[in-house]
């Protein structure tokens, strides 16, 4: 089973700051890495798929990069509405797995 | 518009069997490349993938839970059902169903992301 490790677990950020969240896989997963945003009491929402592909309707300040074992989600110019938990997920090999999540708080 | 909605009991007793239904619209599970998964999330914790069923009725399960899980589909009703046996308080969680595609990308077939999620249903296991 592929283990995904996110860092940091928690980040407190000022609006307009840049946020970087990393996700490391225990073995190479190519580009089969996806990012989700989950706001309190809501279901997860797909932000980025296949490491860097943008999703229609998602603000352009969200971007992703990486391949193999190391991936990054970047939020440029954080807005108050971005307060949420962020999860990475791999679909390279079954069983699918998720990272433990990164909570982003707005200062 | 694609939507998914989970339904099932809010409370089950330990050792009982949980049955959850995912009713969806806007796509068909008889269409090649369509899949539906179940994912759960204990309160305050991370997401955990449970099971997947695809358009061809292939089924895949979480390694740690596969002896307790059964996933099935009723294409005519646009429903996917998950049963989990021998429920325990540690199974208390919000249970989500989500759509996933299986597409030809970059020269090979690949499983896509979970692009649409249901709103989730909270299940508490307690006597």
From TrEMBL, chain A:
Signal peptide: none
Chain ranges of the Ig-like domain: 1-88
SMART domains xref list: IG, IGv
Assembly and binders: Immunoglobulins are composed of two identical heavy chains and two identical light chains; disulfide-linked.
PANTHER family hit by this protein: IMMUNOGLOBULIN LIGHT CHAIN
Any one GO BP annotation for this protein: adaptive immune response
Organism field: Homo sapiens (Human)
A GO CC term attached to the entry: immunoglobulin complex
Keywords from the named record: Adaptive immunity, Immunity, Immunoglobulin, Immunoglobulin domain
Name of the protein: IGL c4176_light_IGKV6D-21_IGKJ1
Record keyword Lyase present: no
PROSITE patterns: IG_LIKE (PS50835)
